[in-house]
Recover the amino acids of this structure.
């Protein structure tokens, strides 16, 4: 039995089934609210959802049974005196130490829970970097949306911010350094690029079997890092567009990455009206379109940042993604064949498999 | 006259010209000159009140500026879409 947590503009849908074409909606929670992101912590089985009410703001909700009652966490909220409120909770990521989870929010900040997600506190050192650096927002706001723990080492973390680049810590968040080298902000004039911190990271993931390897979807290109995020190499050649948001990695293969390009920042739809997931198995040296079973005629879909999830690995890798048109698609054979998982949900903001 | 460098879609609205020489003592006047020469660009960069639109970036010699920035004859002005915009 597989389970998908599908965040939408109109609540959380929990889908359960045995294969891509055999899912059913097990429940819908948070009706009417935006569910930006939802995930199950595999260490504890606890579920977390980022829920934003159009009236009452954002909050982290958690439960041990998504078909039952949910409880509100304490936070994330900025301390009094910062003159800042949380606008949106972009991502929740289990950490490496027992009970530790991370949340990335807008305006860009990292929150940490050490009690299994029940309460959250601000990472002050990174917040000070944000103030000192005068970070600038992207289209989706000033968002900390990517959090990449280092398997087995709770002291090391990489985060991605739109639009303030990559930040790295090796001391559990007590201090931070940048990972800007190699990133090219083509949305700025050449003479304005040197030294800028306006680096619009769209998504970033770490390869768990080779933690020094990360992949990044940037605003206009795709990059790979082989030194834990310190420097980056462009690998977008062969894609129909360098622009896009979703990103996934096969945990069994550190040379693998999957992206879903969109035409351009001014035209955020699947290129040529075809829905395709692009796969590399040689660390970005080449890309192969995977679309067998996906719409390929007049299919102008938008797939958002958190709307591609995965489960399994290797030949059993599952890939699951949703579009703002409300469709969810899936593959249980590493992208070789695809099926429609759900045809008519609300606009999809996130997909995670548990 | 300062050089004004445009990217799509403004370049297309300005007859396909990537670089133009346009007169004006400040950014607002330079953009008005652009609108006068290429009427299809009217309203794309400056809003109803003559301010640079929220999701447009104007750079003067590599520095992001607003509509009231002074412009000299040897300056270079870039006008391009901001990452805060999109559709």
């Amino acid at each position: 039995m597989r389970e998908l947590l599908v965040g939408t503009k109109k609540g959380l849908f929990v889908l359960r089934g045995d294969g891509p074409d055999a899912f059913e909606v097990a429940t819908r929670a948070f009706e009417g609210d935006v569910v930006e992101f939802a995930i199950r912590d595999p260490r504890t089985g606890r579920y977390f959802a980022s829920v934003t009410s159009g009236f009452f703001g954002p909050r982290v909700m958690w439960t041990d049974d998504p078909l039952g009652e949910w409880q509100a966490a304490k936070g994330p909220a900025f301390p009094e005196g910062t003159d800042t409120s949380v606008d949106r909770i972009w991502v929740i990521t289990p950490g490496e130490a027992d009970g530790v989870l991370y949340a990335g929010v807008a305006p860009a900040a990292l929150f940490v829970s050490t009690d299994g997600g029940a309460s959250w506190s601000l990472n002050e050192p990174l917040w000070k970097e944000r103030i000192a650096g005068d970070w600038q927002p992207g289209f989706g706001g000033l968002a900390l949306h990517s959090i990449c723990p280092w398997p087995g080492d709770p002291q090391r973390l990489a985060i991605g911010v739109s639009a303030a680049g990559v930040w790295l810590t090796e001391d559990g968040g007590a201090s931070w350094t940048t990972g800007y080298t190699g990133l090219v902000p083509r949305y700025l004039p050449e003479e304005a690029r040197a030294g800028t911190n306006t680096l619009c990271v769209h998504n970033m993931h770490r390869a768990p079997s080779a933690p020094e390897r990360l992949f990044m979807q940037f605003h206009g290109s795709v990059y790979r890092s082989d030194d834990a995020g310190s420097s980056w190499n462009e690998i977008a050649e062969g894609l129909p567009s360098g622009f896009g948001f979703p990103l996934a990695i096969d945990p069994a293969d550190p040379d693998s990455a999957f992206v879903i390009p969109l035409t351009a920042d001014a035209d955020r739809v699947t290129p040529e009206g075809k829905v395709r997931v692009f796969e590399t198995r040689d660390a970005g040296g080449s890309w192969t379109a995977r679309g067998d079973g996906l719409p390929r005629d007049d299919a102008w879909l938008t797939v958002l940042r958190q709307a591609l999830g995965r489960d399994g690995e290797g030949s059993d890798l599952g890939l699951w993604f949703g579009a703002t048109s409300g469709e969810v698609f899936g593959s249980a054979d590493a992208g070789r064949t695809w099926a429609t998982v759900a045809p008519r949900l609300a606009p999809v903001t996130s997909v995670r498999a548990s | 006259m300062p050089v004004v460098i445009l990217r799509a879609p403004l370049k297309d609205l300005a007859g396909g010209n990537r670089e133009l020489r346009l007169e004006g003592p400040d950014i607002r006047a330079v953009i008005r000159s652009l609108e006068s020469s290429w009427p299809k660009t009217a309203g794309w960069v400056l809003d109803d009140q003559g301010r640079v639109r929220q999701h447009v970036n104007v750079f003067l010699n590599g520095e992001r500026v607003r509509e009231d920035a002074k412009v000299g004859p040897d300056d270079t002005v870039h006008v391009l879409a901001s990452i805060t915009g999109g559709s």
